TrEMBL record:
Keywords for this protein: Signal
Signal in keyword set: yes
Leader sequence segment: 1-25
The keyword Signal is annotated on this UniProt entry: yes
Name the record gives this protein: Uncharacterized protein
């Protein structure tokens, strides 16, 4: 059944998300564009189910899957389906007609990949390509950093493994910005990019990133999210701590990233807005999503309070902010935001 467990402080955020200024060529004389639908799709490593938070109504539904742990999720509104990476079966599962489930339900995958994966952490989608970051050890030597990007094609109702790219750094979050794939360099404060990833990497190969830079102020970057020129990077700090989490907001991201030379550091000053402090409830913010229209950051927090889904609707001012949404979800691991 549906539950409503959003905090009352969400009302202000709902107003912001439901209404936004129209473009100059909009025919709406009121100057207001009404958002009809706004959902946050969330995975977790506690039971592997899909949690759907309706941002406008505050209702929450749970879609029970056969997975017992999952990390990496993507919603395709054009065909109304969710792609989820299962850590318990080491495969991608596709769930169709998601919007037809008006209440909590048990669902079955309509399409599944082979069990190619070993430790999936995130999903990034570009056209008919689905990329999964996997942080399992590649060479049998845990002292050497490495990871794998599993590249699938999604066509005619099937998911087929096209190729595997081996990286020379440990992986976690990944994000497409146009055709460029940005990847977190786990266990560091670095961010890497593979330019024109899908066309330049079509065979099994070990490939170094096109560019890697450090992000000042971050200890251990983990999650990332991009929307309309702004990048969000999360910092889990000491993974054993449930109170030292941070996220950074980088507007005009591509220009700022391009001006930093390979191997150099992007300074905080004049480049980044930092959100941190005891009010934030951030400990291990493992994944993020961003809505540029309302400047809202959504966070999958894995540790604080046992796991939470958080949002910060006034995020661009930075500082020790209190979350607008604070919903308990054990071992929250990944999320995807959609609005229309």
């Amino acid at each position: 059944m549906k539950k409503n467990v959003f905090s009352c402080s969400l009302l202000a955020a709902l107003t912001l998300i439901a209404f936004s200024s129209c473009d100059n060529d909009d025919d709406n004389d009121s100057g207001i564009n009404t958002i009809k639908s706004s959902q946050l799709y969330v995975s977790n490593n506690s039971d592997g189910n899909i949690t759907v938070l309706d941002i406008l109504s505050g209702e929450i539904k749970t879609l029970t899957t056969t997975s017992t742990a999952a990390e990496g999720i993507y919603y395709d509104a054009a065909i109304d389906e969710v792609i989820q990476a299962s850590r318990s079966s080491n495969q991608l599962n596709v769930y169709s007609d998601i919007s037809t489930f008006l209440a909590s339900a048990t669902i079955s995958a309509t399409v599944s990949s082979a069990s190619d994966l070993q430790s999936p952490r995130d999903i990034a989608v570009y056209n008919d390509i689905v990329v999964v970051s996997d942080n399992s050890d590649v060479d049998g030597d845990t002292t050497t950093p490495d990871g794998r990007l599993f590249v699938y094609t999604k066509t005619n109702g099937t998911l087929t493994l096209r190729n595997i790219v081996i990286t020379d750094f440990a992986l976690w979050g990944i994000e497409f910005v146009n055709g460029d794939l940005y990847a977190v360099v786990d266990k560091t404060n670095e961010l890497a990019v593979y330019t024109n990833f899908t066309t330049m990497n079509t065979t099994n190969a070990a490939v170094s990133a096109s560019k890697r830079i450090a992000i000042e102020g971050i200890v251990r970057t983990h999650g990332l999210a991009y929307d309309n020129g702004t990048m969000i990077l999360t910092d889990v700090g000491d993974a054993a701590s449930d109170s030292d989490g941070v996220f950074h907001i980088i507007s005009d991201f591509e220009n700022k990233f391009d001006t930093v030379n390979n191997g150099d550091t992007m300074a905080v000053a004049n480049n980044q807005v930092r959100v941190a402090g005891s009010n934030t409830l951030l400990g291990n913010p493992v994944a993020a999503e961003y809505d540029a229209t309302t400047k809202t950051v959504f966070i999958a927090e894995a540790a604080n309070g046992g796991g939470r889904v958080l949002s910060f609707s006034n995020s661009t001012i930075g500082g020790d902010l209190s979350p607008t949404i604070n919903t308990s979800l054990a071992m929250a691991s990944s999320l995807y935001f959609y609005a229309n």
